[in-house]
Amino acid sequence: MTRGQVIEEGGRSNVYAIEPKMYVDDVQRFGFNEYAEKLNGRLAMIGFVSAIAVEALTGHGVVTWLTHL
């Protein structure tokens, strides 16, 4: 057996993907970094979908909904 390849019955080769080695980065990062940007983008998507859901359920926009409190 070669790396990432298995020879099956009948001489057919079955090639598997070779996964990269995993490592954990213990360094804390502050400011604009990849993790912060992904989290910010995901939270913005959740907020946008929530705003659309509020408008669809109430029939009023978010600004109108907030001013009538």
Overview features:
single chain, 69 residues, mainly alpha, two-stranded antiparallel ribbon, 2 strands, 45% helix
Question: If you had to describe this structure to a student in words, what would you say it looks like?
Answer:
This protein is mostly helical and 69 residues long. The chain has one domain (5-67). It is built from 2 helices and 2 strands. It has helices at 34-58, 62-67; strands at 5-7, 13-15. The protein has a two-stranded antiparallel sheet. A hairpin with a 5-residue loop joins strand 1 (5-7) and strand 2. The mean pLDDT is 81.
Question: Summary?
Answer:
With 69 residues, this protein is mostly helical. It has helices at 34-58, 62-67; strands at 5-7, 13-15.
**Could you say how many structural domains there are in total?**
1
Shape: elongated
Structural class: mainly alpha
Helix content: 40-55%
Specify Rg, calculated over alpha carbons.
25 Å
Largest beta sheet: strand ordering? 1-2
User: pLDDT average, as an integer?
Assistant: 81
- Helix count? 2
Low-confidence stretches: none
Largest sheet: 2 strands, antiparallel
Q: What is the string of SSEs from the N terminus onward?
A: EEHH
Strand percentage, roughly?
5-15%
End-to-end CA span: 70 Å
Q: What's the total count of β strands?
A: 2
